[in-house]
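Thread: "does anyone have the structure for this chain?"

Original post by V.I.:
We have the sequence but no experimental structure in hand. Need at least a predicted one for the grant figures.
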Amino acid sequence: MPKGVGKVVAQNKKAYHDYFIEETYEAGIVLQGTEIKSIRAGKVNLKDSYARIHNGEMHLLNMHVSPYEQGNRFNHDPLRQRKLLLHKREINKLFGETREAGYALIPLKIYLKNGFAKVLLGLAKGKKNYDKREVLKQKEASRDIERAFRERQKM
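Reply from O.Q.:
Generated one for you, C-alpha cells below.
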C-alpha cells in the first residue's frame, strides 16, 4: 500500500496554509494502552504539533489524544511525547535537512493502515504573509475561471 493511504483519522489542514511541504515521510507511532482506541474513535488533534529529533530518535510533540472514555485509570497524559518509528537512515537524512534554517517536521495526517496508526510527516518550510496572500489570489482566480467556464457551458 502506498504511503499516506488508509483510513484518515485526523488531518492538519492548517499546515498546508502555513508551510510549503517539500517531502513527506510515513512513520509509525509508539502508543500506550488506550491511546489507539481514542485514535480509532477520531479523538486526536494535530493542531500545533511538530516532530523533533532527540538522541537519534524522532518524537512527536503537542499531539493531543483525548483520554478514552472507558479507560478510567489506564488513560495516559493527552499531550505526552510519542516516539515515531522511522529507519535510521531516514532519521539521519531528516536531521541534516532540519538543521537548515526554516525547515520543520510537521505532521500532516494520522491514518490507520493495516490496523496500525501511522503519521504522515512533512518536511516543511514556513510561508511568509505575502506567500499566503499570493496563494489565496491564485485560488480565487482559478475559482473565477471555473465559474466562467461553467456559465459558458450552460449556454
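V.I.: this helps a lot. Residues 28 and 85 are 5 Å apart (CA to CA).
O.Q.: and The mean pLDDT is 88.
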